[in-house]
Structure formats: C-alpha cells, structure tokens
Amino acid sequence: MSYDGFLPFISAQLQYLLNHYPHTIQIEQARSGTRYFPGSLDRFTLLIPYCQDHMKWDVIYNAEFPLAAPDVIFGAEDEDFHPFHVVCGEDGDSRLVKNSLTDWNNKDPTRLLALVIELRDKYRSYQEKRVGEVDDDRLKFEISTIVSREGIEMHMSSGFEKPEEVKFAVPLMDMNINKMVSACPWRHPQKIYLQVIYPVDGMCMAEYLPHLEELLQRLVIEAVTLIDVRRQFIEALAPLLGRPLEADPVFCRKASFLVCSGPFTFMLHVFLSTNFPKQQPSLMLQSTQHFNSLGMPVKSPLITEYPWSPRWETSQMADRISDFLVDESLNFKRHCNESHLQY
Amino acid sequence: MADLPFQKITISGPTLSALMHRIATSLGDVDGLLFGHVTRLTPSTLTDDNTPQNPDSDLVATITSFFCPNIPLSFYDSLGRVDSVTLHRLVSSTTHQSNSSSSSSNFLGWFSARRKSPIRPSMREFCVSQSLSRLKTAAKGDKDLNPCVFLLFTTPVHGEMLYHTHEYRAYQFQVNSRCFEPKTIAIDNIGPDFRGNYGCFSPNSPFPELKCASAMNDEVGEDLNRMERVSKDQKELDMVAQGFCVGDLGKLMGSETVNSTMSLEDLYEKMLGKLDNLARQVEKSNAKVLEMENHNRKLRYKIARPVPE
C-alpha cells in the first residue's frame, strides 16, 4: 500500500495504524475533498475486520484545515451507533468527557490508531447490547454459556431486505499458535474463530464447543508436528543431493536442490503437501542448460508416481528418491536434448 | 420536551442556490447555521373524511437564510460539543443584521457540506445536532422548538459520475428518540404557486424621512441647530445617494418646482451612482477577503507540512 498523495501527517497516522493494528486493515477509495488540490488525499474508507466480516468506515480529514480532528461515517446499517454521544445534563456542556478525539494533535502519528481501537471497542459493546436485547430464550441461554470467552464478538444484522440474524465469532482454544511454530512470519496472533449464525437448531454451543476444541487442538498439534517431520525429510535429502539451494524454513513445504548426473546439471524441486508423509512429495526437474523457444528453462512435468511408502524411515525415503533420480535424470536429459534439437 | 415533527422543510430557490454556490466554491468542507421560521399550515382543502389527521404534522420549517463562517468547527469542537458562547455570538450577529422583524430569521439549525463522502450523518454531525437540541435559546417564537434542522450536502465518492454532481438531504433531529428523522425538502420558487410565501414582501426601498427639507425654508431658527440637523440629514441621504446635497432637495418642491424634472433626474443618477459605488466596494472587499483566505491557507499548510530538511 502506498501512501503517496496523502498529506504527510495523514500518511504518518495511516502507516502507524496499518503497522500496529492487531488485525489486517485495508484502505479503499482514497480521495480528496479539496477544491484546488484534488491530488492531496484527505479521506478514505477503512475496512476493519469484525465478527468474521468487514465494517466499512469512512474517515474524513480536512486537507484545508489540517489541525481539525477527523470525522467518521459508519456503515449504512449502523445509523444507531453513536459512540461519542453527549451523556451530560441539560446545559450541553460536558468538558469532562475524555476520548481519543479530545485534544487532537495532528502531529501525533498514533492518534488514528487510538481512535479506531476505541471506536471498534465501542462498536463491540454496542452490538453486544443489541444482541442482549433480542427476546429469544435460546439465544439468551447460548450467550450466558459463552459470554465469558475473551475476544468473543457478536453482530446483529437488521437490514431492510435481510432477515434478522445474530452472528457470533467465538474464539477457540486458548493456545498460542505463534509460539508453536518456530520463526513464524505472522505479525498478528493467529486465532481460530467459530462463526455461529442464529437462529440454529440442534446442539447448543456449550455442548458442541468442547468437542470442537478438542478436535481442533489435536489437528493443530498434529499439523505442527508434521512441520518437523517435513523438516527432517528435507534434512535427510541433504547428504545425498547436497545442501538445498532454497527451502521454506517455516512450514517446510518446498525445497530445491542442484543435482549433477555426470556433466548434466539440473535442479530438483520437491513439493511437500500437508499430508506428508502419507502423500508422497511431488518432484519436478528443471534443466540448467536447456531452454525452450521462449528462453525458459526446460522443466519436467510434476512427478507424483514413484516408489514410496509412508512407513519407511526418513532416511530410507531420501535414499529411494535418490535411487529414483538416477534413472529419471537420464530420461529427463533425453527429453531436454530432444526438445532442444527441435529448435 | 416533546418533539414536534415537521411535515416538511422548505427552502427558497435563491437561498438554496446561494448555499450551494457557497459550498461549491469553498476550499474544503464547510458548515454553518440556518435561519428561517416555522409556520403552521392551514388546511386548504376541506373534506368530509373524518379520519383524524396527525395534528403535529402541519408544521413547516422554512429556511430563508444561512451563515457560513467558512471554517470547520466554528461553533463546536472536534467531539461535536457546541460552544454556546460562540454560537450565541454568531446567531445574534446574523439575526441583528437581517431585518428587525426577527420572526423571519430564527435560528433553525445547521448544515454540513463535505465532498466525496457518503450521504449519511457522520459521528460528529450527530453529536452537534444532539448538542444543539439541548439548547434552550432556540427559535424565540416557538417555545418548544429546538434548532433541530440539519441539511447535509455531499458529492459522490466516485468523482467520475459528473452528471450527478451533488446530493443533499434534510433531517430533523428528534430529541426523545435521539435520531435523525429524514424530511422531504420542498423548494419554493417565485411564481403563482408560491404567492403565499411572498405575500409580505414589498418591493419598495424606503427613502429616509428628512425633517430639514421641509424646515429649510423657515429662515428663522438657530443656525447651530439647523446646521446640526442638516449634517445629520446629509448623512442619511448619503446612505441612498452619492453626492446629492440636502439643500437641493428643496428644489424638488415649493416655488422652485419648475426645474424639478432635472433635479429629480439628478437625484436618481446619484442614487444609481451610490449603487455602483457599493458594488465596487463589495468587489474590492471580496478580493481582499480572498487574498486573506489564501494567506490563511498558506499558513495552515505551513503548519500541516513538516519543514523540508
């Protein structure tokens, strides 16, 4: 995302927001409200994740009056959402209110982030209150069993054309997945949510969630263990084929080796599925010496059929692939020469 | 306090076009105050239908003028809290300027104009309207009426849709339910259909009543008193005509009426000259205002943009 065109102070606040917000925020429809400088962008739409969906909020700065705090326009469905409505008495004077818009300072890059976080928190309470007011025994019971979960989000949609429905995003498992995967690339904590849309029939959540979480927990642990199995396999290939040229260090789904068969040198790409070792790796050979008419290196088709057993030891798997390559490299060399001769 | 819902909000064509011109020529987003009056419609048709009609819905708010300070947050803060002192200053200065018949220029509400944004009241606009609705100093004539009118002007988010350059909506802020109630806008134009709205309009400009003109011929009377009166009258005459001497008014009556045609023509010419001069002054001051606005803008940009290193 480029911040070109925004006024410097808006750009700084946006950049800070995108880099520090705990979830992924998107910016859409950057535009300008000025008469003479349509190039200086000062308003945009933020796509803020909420309850497994997105809210579209328009943030309106004023390029002509940069010292003024921005204004926000909420979605068309949320016309009753008034986060900062005046709660004081008759005199209309409420100097004690304190929130992220009071004492606005356009030079402070953290302000927009603070505003978005505060508004989203207020939006969550607003939706919780709306859902709480729905007169439905089943729903009330369900809420009572899950409301204590930290990070739960609720949403009640009530458009003119849509039927009324209540949505939940229930965070599952109190597990730090980021810590389980070493050198993970995620900036934000990985969380798994269950989306429930009411009205539903059948099992209640209190009954369903423990089973679901147990199952998920098993799946996550298994998936994390499988990363290590894949890593060991790639490491086992190294003594036979040499150190990989390139390998996916986090999830170990891909590795490339430089292999020689006499004077013929080619690259071997190994692709590992999440079902490895049940599913054997797919192989692809790529010549370093032969090119097609477009100047692209000649590649073999994806090879998925060769001797394999998931019950073999890791070292045996590597050995068998190495053995298979002895013959396959000759086939590939012939294939390369043939396609090369055609041009 | 009970909300009295309006049946509709009307605005005269010239006021709306002046407002739109102001908005279209503004540098950025602007807002301002709306003035006008509230009238009760008298049912024009009598029917035998006995269905009870909503007794509250016969109120019509008519917007007759506006005031645009040309800076945002002029009478409220970033949270939308109205600064009652500033508001009072703006409202009273505007209502004093207009005709003394204050009934035609009550403070009705406010407007907000922002480019390229959705046509829905924003977070701050709601707060401002809510804050205004708590003010007791609303329209003087109608005890129960708050400055509850809100006009919203926007331009489409996608600028390519040039065949639809602007949108506007009118709302009435409901105190009890704390929400904006959309209202229809009716535009009053000049024509037989709108005669009722212009009934009290008189196209005459009053000429100042000058005492000395009649007393001029009385040679008696103290000189000092007379001179004082003459200079006072001359000042009043200068308001409508440029360079016409009070003494010459005498030529329009009495024994000297023989040459009155020429004198009268002279008076008209000088009155026109006055208008010309006023127009020139307006033009000059407009240029000055523009110059100052540009200067202010440069200062604001200086604040917003960090100094290049």
Automatic annotation (TrEMBL), chain A:
InterPro entries: BRE. Pfam families: BRE (PF06113). Keywords: Apoptosis, Cell cycle, Cell division, Chromatin regulator, Cytoplasm, DNA damage, DNA repair, Mitosis, Nucleus, Repeat, Ubl conjugation pathway. The keyword Repeat applies. It comes from the Eukaryota. Belongs to the BABAM2 family. This is BRISC and BRCA1-A complex member 2. It comes from Salix suchowensis.
From TrEMBL, chain B:
The keyword Coiled coil applies. The keyword Coiled coil applies. It comes from the Eukaryota. Signal peptide: none annotated. Residues 268-295 form a coiled coil. Keywords: Coiled coil. InterPro entries: FAM175, FAM175_plant. PANTHER family: ABRAXAS FAMILY MEMBER, OS07G0540200 PROTEIN. This is BRCA1-A complex subunit Abraxas.
